[in-house]
Design goal:
The chain is mostly helical. It has 3 domains: 138 residues; 116 residues, no CATH class; 117 residues, no CATH class. Helices cover 56% and strands 4% of the residues. The protein is built from 18 helices and 2 strands. A two-stranded antiparallel sheet has the order 1-2. A hairpin with a 2-residue loop joins strand 1 and strand 2. The termini are far apart.
Length: 411
């Protein structure tokens, strides 16, 4: 790494750590077990004539007597944290390693603390691989690829995280054809990850990025959002061309096939940054839709609770109205039709998942509301949903509509 981590940055980080109440730098380990992951303590000298090496020092003064204090290591020249940037970065990365720290909230806070301070030196800690689904971090130079992927923790596939890391590394190391290939692999796997998230099904591999992206567009309603600004629509339409361009560039300049054109650094950065921008945006949209889930469910239930517009807030109309309607009558209600037609595929999926996961059936009213809500989305129900509902309602005597519901749905 060419970037220099200044002493000011290091001291600022250590000062913030020291002032963080209740924080232990070694996580769920201890001083010796933590440091032995980074150093060979038995090969480092002792500062106490009674002991053979540094491990003996630590054992006596930290584990037995505890007379060095919690942050003794900061200025210990044997660890060279101020003198050696690589050792410093390895040290703070180890602080948020999943083996060391199992408190995810602490990890998130520490990662922000580190990156906020490192940004001034052009460095960022980012995941490069996973262990049991938990990220392992390393330092990269931000300047190698100017776009920061903010949603990296939302990526559900280790392969995609690896491609993101390889993009950065290969631009840095001058492997431009490799970076272009990895940028294509990145967006291909991100599309597959999002497809699985929004549909619950694996995306059949087609080898055509443009066609795969169109499936995501359909799920997220990117091409038909009537309320979007025309300029935003124009940018979103341009994404199709960009993805097609990444696909073509990887064939001509990447190392997947016999290279037709030798790429330069700016070609690689264009490919990598374009793939990152699109992928990051897709996760933002998924997140936005997910946050809308409860609002959508509340609105649906409110519509079902009311007989006419003037009754929207009158719960007492529910029993006299909704219970009297059959499934077929409910789906013909004008306000219901209008609400359902405004939902895209992903929003419908969110409502189904939210109802199954969170809706509680404690009485007959709840039972009717639950199944009639699901009936409105019957075209998007799967056999997997049926299994989840069976597990949810097992032993619930108030859930009396299950058999009738599935006869109507005919899944």
């Amino acid at each position: 790494m060419n970037a220099k981590i200044t002493e000011l940055t290091k001291r600022n980080i250590f000062d913030e750590l020291i002032n963080t109440e209740g924080l232990t730098w070694y996580g769920r380990l201890d001083d010796i077990r933590f440091l032995n992951r980074l150093y060979k303590l038995k090969e480092l000298p002792s500062n106490d004539s009674r002991y053979l090496n540094m491990e003996g020092d630590i054992n006596q003064h930290c584990l037995f007597n505890n007379d060095w204090g919690n942050w003794w290591f900061v200025d210990d020249p044997r660890l060279a944290l101020y003198e050696d940037d690589e050792k410093f970065l390895n040290f703070i990365c180890e602080m948020i390693h999943p083996v060391v720290r199992n408190n995810e909230e602490e990890t998130v806070k520490l990662l922000k603390l580190f990156n906020d301070n490192l940004a001034g030196d052009g460095v960022e800690l980012t995941p490069f691989k996973y262990i049991s689904g938990k990220p392992i971090f390393r330092a990269i130079e931000i300047g190698n690829s100017t776009v920061i992927f903010e949603n990296i923790e939302k990526i559900g596939r280790e392969f995609a995280v690896e491609q993101l890391s390889k993009c950065e590394e290969k631009v840095k190391n001058g492997d431009y054809d490799g970076a272009i290939t990895n940028s294509r692999s990145l967006i291909e796997d991100i599309i597959a990850d999002i497809h699985k998230t929004v549909s619950g099904e694996e995306l059949e591999k087609s080898g055509d990025l443009k066609e795969d992206y169109k499936k995501i567009k359909s799920f997220l309603n990117l091409s038909t959002e009537k309320e979007a600004d025309n300029n935003i629509k124009q940018i979103l339409r341009g994404f199709v061309s960009i993805i097609d361009g990444i696909d073509s560039l990887s064939n001509k300049m990447g190392d997947r096939h016999r290279r037709q054109v030798k790429p330069e650094r700016h070609h690689a950065k264009l490919c990598v940054n374009s793939a990152k921008i699109i992928s990051d945006l897709l996760y933002d949209i998924v997140d936005y839709q997910f946050n809308r889930r409860n609002q959508l469910i509340d609105k649906l239930l409110l519509i079902l609770n009311s007989k006419k517009s003037s009754d929207l807030l009158r719960y007492e109309t529910f029993k006299n109205y909704i219970h009297s309607l059959s499934y077929e009558e409910i789906i013909k209600e004008p306000r219901v039709i209008d609400f359902i037609n405004k939902l895209d595929t992903y929003q419908k999926r969110l409502i189904i998942d939210g109802l199954i996961q969170n809706y509680q059936i404690n009485c007959w009213d709840d039972d009717s509301r639950f199944f009639k809500s699901l009936y409105l989305l019957k075209d998007h129900l799967t056999l997997s949903d049926k299994d989840k509902i069976i597990n949810k309602l097992h032993g619930n005597s108030q859930a009396v509509s299950f058999d009738i519901f599935w006869e109507e749905v005919n899944l």
